[in-house]
Every structure is written in C-alpha cells, then in structure tokens.
Amino acid sequence: MDVGIIGAGRIGQAVARAALRAGRQVVLANSRGPNHWRPWSRPSARGAAAGTVDEAAGARIVVIA
Questions:
Q1: Which run of H or of E encompasses 3?
Q2: Closest CA to 48 of 8, 12, 17
Q3: Could you tell me the pTM of the whole model?
C-alpha cells in the first residue's frame, strides 16, 4: 500500500478520499478492526481497503488521524 491511515474518523476518511483521488492505494485502520470498514472494500472505493493497524503502519506513507 502507498498510504496507511490509522484512525477512521472524519480526518482519516478525508485523507483517504484525497489519496484515492491522487491515484494512491490506501489501507484504513481503526481500533475496531478491519470488519468495521467493509464499505472501503466495495468497487466504488477501488484502491482502498480496510486493514489492521499493523498493515496501515507498514505502508510507505503513514497518517495518524
């Protein structure tokens, strides 16, 4: 992944949308786990995935929101 975002609140989601518009791959993580963010896996959010904090922390760019 290009961008890992830890924190899926308003700021984290805004950063994820901006990164997706820029053509980046995004993994979004929160304290509840990846099952909480299934909408990020749907086709309209291509390039985005829900993941664990460890997966997000392993990205090239990490944002803590």
A1: strand 3-6
A2: 17
A3: 0.83
Mind spelling out the 3-state secondary structure of 14-58? HHHHHHHHCCCCEEEECCCCHHHHHHHHCHHHCCEEECCHHHHHC
d(CA 49, CA 39): 9
Average pLDDT (9-24) is 92
CA distance 47 to 19: 10
CA distances from 28 to 10, 18, 44, 57, 60 (A): 12, 13, 15, 10, 13
Q: Are 4 and 55 in contact (CB under 8 A)?
A: yes
